[in-house]
Amino acid sequence: MKLNPASDHVYFNDGFKCSSISINTNLNESSNADVNGADSGNGSQGSNEFILTDDGKKIIPPTKPMSCAKSWLQEKTRKTFKKKNLHKRIPILRWLPKYNSEDAVGDLVAGITVGLTVIPQALAYSGIAGLPAAYGLYGSFLGCFVYIFLGSCKDVPVGPSAIVALLTFQVAHGSWQKSVLLCLMCGIVEMLMGLFGLGFLIDFVSGPVSSGFTSAVSLIILTSQVKNILGISAKGTTFVEIWTEIIHNIKDIRASDTILGITCIVVLLIMRLLPSCKIGPKEPHLRSKTQNVINKIIWIVGTSRNAILVILCCIMGVLLHSYHEGTPFKVIGYIPQGLPSFALPPTHLSVNETLTGKEETFVDMMRSMGSGLIVIPLISLMENIAICKAFANGKPVDASQELIAIGAANIANSFVQGFPGTGALSRGAVNNASGVRTPLSNIYSGALVIISLIFFTPYFYYIPNATLAAIIIAAVVFMVEVKVVKPMWRAKKSDLLPGLVTFIACLVLPLEMGILIGVGLNVIFILYSAARPKLSTEILTTPGGTEYLMITPDRCIIFPSVDYVRNLVNKQSLRNNVPVVIDASHIYGADFTAATVIESLLRDFASRRQLIFFYNLKPSICALFESLSPTEFVVYYQEQQLDELLKERDYSQDKLQTVGV
């Protein structure tokens, strides 16, 4: 109820009378309180968003830009430094205060175990990236330390991975300068994606596309290492190119490298079975102390198989080395002793440092990286999230926070000449099986890498290339996801298409193009599904005995699907010639284009004098449709209302059928 609008412009709500809250509606008292500067505490307070003038207009009070900026900054600072947000963005604050001796022992054991795994993998994966072995070690320690503070998953050991190493090779083409700069730029992209909450982008890489990509990458990596097993040279970036080179140079095969490589693969595959071997009863509490100790030793030997094999082959290389003839097999060669220098990544390439013989500026280097700056961060996140989900025990995974953590780790690694890295699932499994408790385990694995760089790099000279190739092959051969084909075929055969296309595209084309083709095909499938909703039709009878056609769309009506829906509704309504009811229970969204087509649909029905109603349409969508519908637009929400609506419009079943005839 409105009183004295011209004089005081105050509105009263009759609901105040029924309220239990005491509200002072005496204007004179309120005015007096304002004059005296006292707050009575009983009156309803006005808004400071606008000022109401004498003629009833609302005007926004003038504000100073500096005061607005200051208030915005204060609000952002308050939200940023809330305890909940700090624990979310700096996870170490969440678990460090509760850290105890049991956590320390678990992290120590897991960190040392992972460290023994990461050193041979780093040496091997640098070969996949087309870089000297030292660069794999350079990217395996500083990022680990950064992840301790920002990482949200205890099982993630940051460092080189086979898939990211291969992507690095295809983008940087074996240039260490470009690889290091790529590490910095990928870290920046990952950091920005995480800060802007773009972790959801990983959801656009479906299971079939991910399986096709991973399987293709596994075959390419395996193929790239065949040349080291055979002791020949073979250049190329794609599956087809590498095999063409291998076949062309097969005449140069070296028997010693081949025998050593095949032997190492067999030994690794046998040792892979050791962690699952148990002596004594199946239940641990029924075993004797001796049996438990033996089982633990067997598990450690099986888990550290890569390090054990590298050490044995390195000793063999030292013993067989001759000053005049060298070793009977190819070795990785010289690795600089000591830690790398801390410096900015290269931003310029001289004539002697490029493959083309032309000088490259920072812009040229960035241009040559192309889509790799987007694909590598996404694939890195995909690998990292796979580890988090595998060992999360149902807990939610914050993809954006993982992007921030990986990005910060890669930025740090770029200053010590590392190439892009992420969490590797094989090392994550070892970490989890070793009893890791917190991300602090990364400090021990990183420390082992530093120790190896300072003291043991002279001995790495004698490690055979065939041994490192065997380590890679024995790891990636199990990444080919053949087992997903059968259940996918049973569940939904059409899902095989994007997976198969991604697999073939990644084998024939560069990997970044292959994954983009797979994601693009998936998006097309999603758009087609949105453009062709399912419409179920059924002839029903009202309580009053009148037949009508119920049409039920199974999803929202948006611009790609509206014409399709209109044509189907018209087709079915002409065929049955009865009133039509569109069940809108599943229509949770619509747009302007949908509203214009609904207007056309109503005109179609009005022109042939056929009734159409909407059932259970959400109010927000109802308002959108009503705004553009000049003809009668009727919505009802209870089934018994339909007879009343038909009666109001003098509808007769016999009359309509006669008109239809």
UniProtKB/TrEMBL annotation:
Main location: membrane
GO biological process, one term: transmembrane transport
Biological source species: Musca domestica (House fly)
Subcellular location: Membrane
Example of a GO cellular component annotation carried by this entry: membrane
InterPro entries registered for this protein in UniProt: SLC26A/SulP_dom, SLC26A/SulP_fam, STAS_dom_sf
TM stretches of this protein: 156-173, 180-202, 258-276, 297-320, 372-392, 443-462, 468-485, 497-528
Protein name: Sodium-independent sulfate anion transporter isoform X1
Record keywords: Membrane, Transmembrane, Transmembrane helix
Membrane topology: Multi-pass membrane protein
Start and end residues of each SLC26A/SulP transporter domain: 106-497
